[in-house]
Amino acid sequence: MFNRAHQKMEVWRLIVLRRNASEVLVFQSDGRFRLPRVKIPAHGRVALALNAQIKALWSLEVYSLYPLPAVPPDHATAHYHIVEALEYEAAAPRTAQWLPIRSTTAELFIDHQDFTAVETWTGSLGRSNTNGRRSPFEKPGWFFEFTDCVQEAIRPFRLTLTGNFQQFNASSSFSLIRFESNADAIWFKAVGEPNGREFPLTVALSTCLSSFTPRVLATLPLWNGWLAVEAQGSTLSQSPYFHAWEKAVTSLGELQAKSIPATAEILAAGARGIQTDWLLDQCDPFFSLMESLMQQQSKPLPPPLAPTQLLELRHRINQMLRRLGNMNIPDTLCHLDCNPGNVVVSSTKCIFLDWCEAAVGNPILNFQLFLDYFRLHFGSDTQAESALISAYFRSWEGLLEPHVVRNALQLAPALAVFTTAVSFVVRRDRKDMASPQTSAWLRSLARRMHREVEAASALQFVA
Q1: What pLDDT is attached to residue 130?
Q2: Do 407 and 461 form a contact (C-beta atoms < 8 A)?
């Protein structure tokens, strides 16, 4: 069983606001003040955990606005988050008080960073983009105006908000909130850059592939977001049963096949093109980058790939891509983030969530990514894996010959890794590659690609 005592925690300092952001919550100590602090699990959903902790510790009902950048920048361990009380006259906890924002001075605070954070936040309120399209969730009070918009949008569907909600993500331009209603729960999601394209993509897919995507009730352009009915069922991450994965992979194949006539529309809505020709064009720049990253490796193990190995790997990937392209498999919609948490299965259907990583390309590469998650979940169960592949084959009956799919699957392990790596690199600035974590991850993908290419060289292809 997981030992909670060993769970890594992180401390967040809070700027908790009240009365139209005219007051901030402070705790007293020896005649001076400090901002509230809470501990939450690291690497989790910050807004969800903060809101829950604030309620548990101080009985305050709040919603989160956004995290403040590190203040000052060289103190990256000091995390600050802006939070607002839902009640105008929310009571202060014991040993705390509401301090007028205009009364804050550096001398009042025990820790100067706390005052600097408050000063930084008040200065940000004057920015011209506050509550605009770029940063719609910065302005205090946005939640109250927003919930009125939500209620108005769902009224035609005879839905009424109950007042209960869970806020999962919060930032100046991103939001994810689950609202309870008198019937099904309603999800609101808003996206900003670099994921702004998920908004038009989700709307387009809800129209042309509605059987496989959440039902969108309304769009809220001011917030760059949409409202969707909660998908019924359980995510694959919650299911230990093979039949759920079998149903999901069958639905994936059906989704891909039905998307073929709509690929132009899907690309126009913002999906990335990862067709074979595009992947071929990425070979030279990608492997040039990898040669540089391998040379930068400081640790002896695992050993970096030598320039000659990278040259051979580039040649082999190029050959495999050309072979895949010659199979004339139609390009389809691909979900490049089809992890088990993004797939909801019920007794009647399968719904795919989070289309930020939507692309148009070879469907077998998408299936390979799904198969990788299946192996993580079930281990080396060859019988179950064979049954899963067979289920996927059946969804392509009448469109592709079985031997074509089987041959493509032999190329897919290496090419799926290449597609993952290239899709990541092209979306980021070259300077991002200098991050030790990023460069180490890319090197690990290249080594895995090398292993998969070696394994594929021993396979027999069916004519």
Answers
A1: 45
A2: yes
Q: What is the pLDDT of residues 2-55, one digit of tens each?
A: 444 567 899 999 999 999 999 999 999 888 999 999 999 988 999 999 999 999
Q: Which two tokens stand for residue 53?
A: 């902790």
Place of tokens 């205009």: 102
